[in-house]
Amino acid sequence: MNAVQARPIREPSLADALIPLVTLAVLIGGSLALFGLGALSGPIQTALVLCTMVAAIIALKNGHSWEAVQASGQRAMASVTSAVFILLAVGALIGTWNMSGTIPTLVYLGIQLLEPSWFYAASALICGAIAMVIGSSWTTASTIGAGLVGIGVLLGVSPAITAGAVISGAYLGDKLSPLSETTILTAQLVKVTVPEHIRRQAWTSVPAFLIGLVLFALLGLGFGPEVVDGVSTEIELGKLGEMFNITLWNLLPLALLMLLSFRKVPASLALMAAALTAGLTGAILQPQVLHNFVGEPGGPLLTAIKATWLAMATGFHIQTGVAEIDQLLSRGGMSSMLSTLWIIFGAVTFGTLLDEFGLIMRLINPLLYAAKTTGRLFATVLGCSLGLNIVAGDQYIALVLPARVFRAEFAKRGLAPTNLSRLAADGGTVTSPLVPWNSCGAFMAAALGVPTLLYLPFAFFCIFSPLLSLLYGITGFKIERIEPHLIEPEVAQPATAPGPQAGQAAEG
């Protein structure tokens, strides 16, 4: 063992850096080709674990000890601890909100208020406003967004387009909110103030969102799927009113969640508090629903405890005789998030090994040297951020690494740090939900009930934000310049502790 530890550590070769990425491309592509969207229920997770093993073997080949590989994996797990508890809390919340009547009430009111012709655009605007207030794309998508997807299902519009609209709005609000952890983190990494960062990235975020709104309006005006007729909607409304006591009091858990999020209570605690509150309101307002769900005789208190416990653990289930309502409301539970966590564990561990053992930097350095013009430099930053979201599977890595690696180069070329902060957000933050095995993409698919690859073409904001950033870099529009100067480049080092940023970045 001492002989193994004494081996000299070698710098990774280009082949070392490429082999894990080629393995990832082959295994992910093969799983999608063989299993289609079913690949997300196990084959892709298996592919990520195998890719992690390949990266570990390369680290060992270059002289690193197995203990160092294990320590890197432990840091990867620690970095997503916050995201794990958020996901489990979201699963619990979806279960109890379905059971308590919170989501049925949102759906009932939404069907009456939202017209199919402007439903997509309205969904984007609603989620954008809420995310800007509470500063979290994850909380917005898993609550209001999930309700909007449910409304869309009953209206007969496309769940994929609705999910794209929800994500577009959620990430707009997240990027422009001074309460957003990712916004604060990006500004800190590049060493600019949060207001400066928000003002600069508004130049890409607002136009990208407006382009998305126009496209959503066109899709709603007849270019999208045909909607169901009014008779079907009336049947579904009647069934919801028959099964649940529809009242505004059912929205108390939502009001509590909004309040706690605005007060910056940690997301996992706020979500769990809202889930438990839904169990309490359900016991008071929906006693028959809870009794039917448990299916066993017992007093009101025992029934409420068992129903809430089951809804949080394995989700709520109901049989109304209307397939669309059953599919909408029979969801949730912490157990429903286990497949998503499997994806996140595999992806983040793989990305952390690539980062800490120098494989990512081996690929980035040649790209940096080749970026001779401002347009090429911008394209390199955006490409690295998107690439890290794909290969590392974690928004945190896709934000931190480009900010550290390119900060010195931007200063050397006389480019203001606000340019880099905007690029990091446009490349790292908004592209994360477009990758199925990324922590954000996996979360959005689980929370909204729509596979990532289905909503991807309609997440217009997440597509146009980086494209506008690239266009600005090529044309020189809204590029701020400063006096060129030299600063010491920052290189990502293995952390001795994950710090709060990892979980915060994952939360959005």
Automatic annotation (TrEMBL):
Matches recorded under InterPro entries: Na/H_Antiport_NhaC-like_C, NhaC_Na-H+_Antiporter
Membrane topology according to the record: Multi-pass membrane protein
Molecular-function GO terms, alphabetical: antiporter activity
Subcellular compartments: Cell membrane
UniProt keyword list: Antiport, Cell membrane, Membrane, Transmembrane, Transmembrane helix, Transport
Record-annotated Na+/H+ antiporter NhaC-like C-terminal domain positions: 169-477
Main location: membrane
Recorded GO CC terms: plasma membrane
Chain segments annotated as transmembrane: 17-40, 47-64, 76-97, 118-138, 144-172, 202-223, 243-262, 269-290, 341-365, 377-398, 453-474
PANTHER family: MALATE-2H(+)/NA(+)-LACTATE ANTIPORTER, MALATE-2H(+)_NA(+)-LACTATE ANTIPORTER
Entry similarity comment: Belongs to the NhaC Na(+)/H(+) (TC 2.A.35) antiporter family.
Identification of the protein by name: Transporter (NhaC family)
